[in-house]
């Protein structure tokens, strides 16, 4: 994929702020700190387009990134950060619900999980939510560089099993650090976007 332009359109806190055109969107869901921002930066070859952070639990926004004026990546607010208040958890649920239920532009929601760990209860909920909405249930296993080569298949199998994935469901391991998996992921994304 040749990236001619990549820019943030808006960090939205409410629906009225979502972009109003009809460009297709692929949204990324996952735990805070799973590597969503790093993945967006990797995909578009920018070091700092999406804000990465080593401290999870940053402000809850839905971030829209325009790519080549052709489509958008949408960074959904992360979940699973222990220290957030009940009110903020409720706000997270409302935001997600409004976006996933109403967004006509949305063509796919991709679930990110850390390849080192078994999916959490919330990961499992998120994944079944995604399937419930009728999306394919593509999974990206992040931080591939953090495990030994010999551990890869075992971890991928574990994630498949814990998320209840079907044999035809796709899981792609990626490292934003070593860039491994990037081309395979783009191949899939161009298929999904049909660009
Ligand atoms: P987000 O909260 O999901 O957007 O996660 P970030 O992209 O901000 O990443 C959280 C932390 O994990 C940061 O310190 C990143 O540098 C680190 N990180 C993200 N992806 C990778 C990866 O593929 N490999 C390694 N080693 N670290 C990563």
CATH architecture: 3-Layer(aba) Sandwich
Radius of gyration, in Å, reads 16 Å
The number of helical runs is 5
Domain module tally: 1
Q: What structural class do the secondary elements suggest?
A: alpha/beta
List the ligand species: guanosine-5'-diphosphate
Enumerate the spans where pLDDT stays under 50 for 5 or more consecutive residues. Answer: none
CATH topology: Rossmann fold
Secondary-structure element pattern, one letter each: EEHEEHEHEHEH
Average pLDDT, all residues: 93
Give the distance, in angstroms, between the N- and C-terminal Cα atoms.
Answer: 9 Å
Describe the structure.
- With 195 residues, the protein is an alpha/beta fold.
- It has one domain (6-193): P-loop containing nucleotide triphosphate hydrolases (Rossmann fold, 3-Layer(aba) Sandwich).
- It is 31% helix and 21% strand.
- It is built from five helices and seven strands.
- It has helices at residues 36-43, 86-102, 121-132, 152-162, 182-193; strands spanning 6-12, 25-30, 62-67, 71-75, 106-114, 139-142, 171-173.
- Strands 1-3-4-2-5-6-7 form a seven-stranded mixed beta sheet, with helices on both faces.
- Helix 4 (152-162) links the parallel strand 6 (139-142) and strand 7.
- The longest helix has 17 residues, at 86-102.
- The termini are close together.
- The relative contact order is 0.18.
- It binds guanosine-5'-diphosphate (GDP).
